[in-house]
Design a protein that fits this description.
The chain is mostly helical. It has helices spanning 15-29, 48-62, 78-85, 89-97, 114-141; strands spanning 35-37, 43-45, 75-76, 104-106, 109-113. The chain has five helices and five strands; from the N terminus they run αββαβααββα. A hairpin with a 5-residue loop joins strand 1 (35-37) and strand 2. The longest helix has 28 residues, at 114-141.
């Protein structure tokens, strides 16, 4: 089971590790992009996506947070998926039963890949945004955005 995403975890880092993380932050925040140094002295530049992951990881670790890296194929239990999405497990099960979120079975237990949770989350956010935009249009169209309106 994946730990709840909203739980903040602090890691114990040594003074030496904190100093190294501060130096890494300085390098990452500098004008030049850091490179890996190969065995024979070859300079290998970080690909852009990896550089962003490294930057975020360094900043989080420097602030004492734990970093968890998950594959998009990571499997979540229904409870872990519900926690991730911020909903109850029974509500998630209803969504699974209506095929709103892709899942598969491991034996008799449902499992949901992280990529499917992210797809659902993006779709849900788009629908929410469209609904809010439509509501805002109605409010503006009715002139109810006027600060002098008393109802």
């Amino acid at each position: 089971m994946i730990p709840r995403a909203t739980t903040e975890t602090r890691t114990q880092t040594s003074e030496h590790d904190r100093e190294l993380l501060e130096k890494l932050e300085d390098v990452i925040n500098g004008d030049e992009r850091p490179v890996l140094l190969g065995r024979e002295g070859a300079h290998i530049q970080f690909p852009e996506p990896l550089f962003h992951v490294l930057t975020k990881a360094v900043r989080m670790m420097a602030s004492g947070q734990a970093v968890l890296l998950l594959s998009e194929n990571e499997e979540f239990t229904t409870q872990a998926a519900a926690n991730y999405l911020g909903m109850s497990r029974p509500h998630l099960i209803k969504l699974l039963d209506r095929n709103e979120i892709a899942f598969h079975y491991v034996g008799t237990h449902r499992r949901i890949h992280l990529k499917n949770l992210k797809e659902f989350e993006a779709s849900r956010d788009r629908e929410r945004r469209q609904t809010l935009d439509a509501l805002a249009d109605k409010v503006l169209g009715a002139g109810l955005d006027n600060a002098d309106y008393t109802g």
